[in-house]
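Action item from last week, closing it out:
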Amino acid sequence: MVRFIPLFLAILLSGFFTGTGNGLPDVSTGKLRLIFYNVENLFDTVNDPGKDDDAFTPDGDRRWNAYRLRIKVNNIYKALVAAAEFEIPAIIGLCEVENMHVLEMLATQTGLKNHDYRIIHRNSADRRGIDVAVLYRPEYFIPLDTLFLAINFPFDTLATTRDILYLKGLARGTDTLYLFVNHWTSRWGGQAITEPYRNHTASVLRSFTDSLLLQHPDAAIVIMGDFNDEPNDISLRKHLFASLDTDNPESGKLYNVSFTPGRSNMGSCKYQGEWFLFDQFIVSGSLLNGSAPLQTCLKSFSVFSAGFLLIPDESWFGFKPFRSYEGFRYTGGFSDHLPVVLDLWW
């Protein structure tokens, strides 16, 4: 059964379920809302001979067509607006998008067109052709420098994956903000077998952030993405060195604000009955200790788990994300991940 959620209902529902945590002090004078969303297989309908996208074509296994693509784009828009809680986000990080065409559909053929979003994207070497991208509003963020970090694995020269998107820009016109958007190698084939790929990607990212922090110890860095690992896994703790202890944050170090000790079972994605927090925000210490003009805190991070993004998990228990497909059966949902949100303030 295909379910369609009107936009006004999506926004209304967002107030009745777990939404974004504010955690903002009364003295704050402004706020930047950032959202990251793994939108799961946002493909166009055209076969790309150089990519493994055959299933997402009208004649492919998924019978992917213009109608289903339109529903998918509109659903992503509804999820983003609801997660924003009437505060249209300044910056949206996305992953699992095929190309500029589907991003332009999202930015110009939904209600986002009223907010002048600009797009940053490049086709990566990923074998399926799924990439990371950023949508941003120039009134809140002005890019100064863009770099796509290609990831090459010295122990597996045939493997390909998504780029890391790096952005340096001005937030609110004056404050330099460094952004990294990630989608690390999945666990397909087993966690232990795929772990070296994520560890290597983490090391590449760490080398880049080390260079930034060496030049600018108080640099305001925000790392977002689907890491396919949890905050306490080795790739994030031992290779990226993203600390889980935010009690006394130091400038020049990285901290995972997605981690809350004793958090509930709810995460951003679910596999075989277990929730995982793969979608995260990691920040530099200057954003936590007051040494940068922009600030954030643990309470400013949340997984947006509104009811319309979930369906009953009949195979296991509770609920799970409402996807576009259950196997090869089209259901007209959103994604196998939930959006995550982080607020910065000044």
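Closing note: The radius of gyration is 19 Å.
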